[in-house]
């Protein structure tokens, strides 16, 4: 009897696969009634699917972007009977037109490892107990639906979770502290929601987290809570971020973060870092060379990276001292140097031709010789005398 059930199940799975991806209404062996019944299987998730208790993988989705061609895929709601599939490990209903709430019966899928429901019209509040038995879940992808309300605290039970993506919903309330207990989490996307309040710093101390995006929410609490792009947060960078060495992407741009940049940003060897468009001041500490200058731009009080203690500030030009850009740039260099405690105008070493009424010597050989000497002098390891 068990063998017969397994063969029957295999036949049903193959039938669903054929209907979903290669159904042809011109097949002569299909009469009108059978054809309509098979098409109905493609349009909605029938409650009878709950009878397929041996099913381990269920994927009905438009991976090729068929929705753009007018094929909206599955419609209607997710039947509560889907929670009867106790052997299910993979459920992917991506890019359909499903609507309505998430059935609490899905919490019965104890073996589920991947739950992918993105790009639908699902709505309502997430049932508070739905995550209590998802001990094996690795992927939870609910992005671009219409879910509302707070995230249930039972999310802390997703102890195996590696990827959490809730982008593009209407979730509100504070981010659950329980997310900071998901020790296997590597990616967290909560952008484009309505979360507010503080952000649990434990999120950024998770041992495996590599990417976090909380942008475009209403996270308006002052630091030391952590913030990301465009949240409008004020305050200084919290010291506890220095222990989050596993982070690979840290985007703090377009906020109102003030104060100086801490020296510990140089401890992140593979960090993609952005603090542009803030209110930072002071000098930029030594950091990973792969971080571009644009990552520090649009901070009115922020200066260039600090110079080594005994480095000289040298201005080199081929024109005579009374020509070229030296007379214009010198006072501006002096202002910049004072702001970072690097001396005064007397500490700017000029390397160029002495004041002269002529722009050049008139002899190409002499001109070339002077050019070579200027470059050598500007780059010499010994201190350069003034002028």
From TrEMBL:
Sequence ranges assigned to domain Disease resistance R13L4/SHOC-2-like LRR in this UniProt record: 78-271
Keywords: Cell membrane, Glycoprotein, Leucine-rich repeat, Membrane, Receptor, Repeat, Signal, Transmembrane, Transmembrane helix
2-oxoglutarate dehydrogenase E1 component/KDG C-terminal domain sequence ranges: 310-379
Domain of life: Eukaryota
GO cellular component: plasma membrane
Subcellular location: Cell membrane; Membrane
Main location: membrane
Gene3D superfamilies for this protein: Multifunctional 2-oxoglutarate metabolism enzyme, C-terminal domain (3.40.50.11610), Ribonuclease Inhibitor (3.80.10.10)
Membrane topology: Single-pass type I membrane protein
Pfam families with a match to the protein in the record: LRR_14, OxoGdeHyase_C
Signal sequence bounds: 1-29
The keyword Transmembrane appears for this protein: yes
Keyword Disulfide bond listed: no
PANTHER family in UniProt: LEUCINE-RICH REPEAT RECEPTOR-LIKE PROTEIN KINASE FAMILY PROTEIN-RELATED, OS05G0170300 PROTEIN
Protein name per the record: Uncharacterized protein
Gene source species: Chenopodium quinoa (Quinoa)
């Amino acid at each position: 009897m068990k063998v017969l059930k397994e063969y029957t199940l295999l036949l049903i799975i193959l039938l669903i696969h054929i209907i979903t991806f290669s159904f042809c209404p011109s097949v002569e062996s299909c009469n009108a009634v059978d054809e309509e019944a098979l098409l109905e299987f493609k349009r909605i998730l029938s409650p009878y699917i709950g009878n397929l208790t041996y099913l381990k993988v269920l994927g009905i989705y438009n991976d090729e972007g068929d929705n753009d061609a007018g094929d909206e895929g599955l419609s209607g709601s997710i039947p509560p009977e889907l929670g009867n599939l106790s052997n299910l490990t993979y459920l992917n209903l991506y890019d359909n037109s499903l609507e309505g709430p998430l059935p609490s019966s899905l919490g019965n899928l104890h073996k589920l490892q991947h739950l992918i429901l993105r790009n639908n019209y699902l709505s309502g509040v997430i049932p508070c107990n739905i995550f209590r038995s998802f001990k094996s879940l690795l992927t939870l992808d609910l992005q671009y639906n219409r879910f509302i309300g707070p995230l249930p605290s039972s999310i802390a039970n997703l102890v195996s979770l590696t990827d959490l993506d809730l982008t593009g919903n209407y979730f509100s309330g504070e981010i659950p502290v329980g997310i900071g207990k998901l020790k296997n989490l590597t990616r967290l996307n909560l952008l484009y929601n309505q979360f507010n309040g503080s952000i649990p710093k434990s999120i950024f101390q998770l041992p495996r987290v590599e990417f976090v995006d909380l942008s475009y929410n209403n996270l308006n609490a002052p630091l030391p809570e952590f913030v990301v792009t465009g949240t409008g947060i004020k305050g200084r960078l919290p010291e506890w971020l220095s222990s989050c060495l596993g982070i690979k992407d840290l985007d703090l741009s377009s906020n109102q973060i003030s104060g100086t940049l801490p020296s510990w940003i140089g401890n992140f060897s593979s960090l993609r870092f952005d603090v542009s468009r803030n209110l930072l001041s002071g000098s930029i500490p030594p950091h990973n060379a792969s971080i571009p200058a644009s990552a520090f731009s649009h901070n009115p009080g922020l200066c260039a990276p600090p110079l080594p203690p005994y480095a000289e500030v040298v201005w080199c030009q081929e024109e005579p001292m009374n020509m070229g850009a030296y007379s214009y740039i010198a006072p501006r260099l002096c202002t910049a140097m004072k702001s970072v405690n690097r001396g005064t105008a007397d500490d700017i070493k000029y390397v160029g031709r002495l004041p002269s009424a002529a722009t050049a010597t008139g002899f190409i050989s002499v001109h070339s010789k002077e050019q070579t000497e200027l470059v050598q002098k500007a780059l010499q390891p010994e201190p350069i005398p003034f002028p």
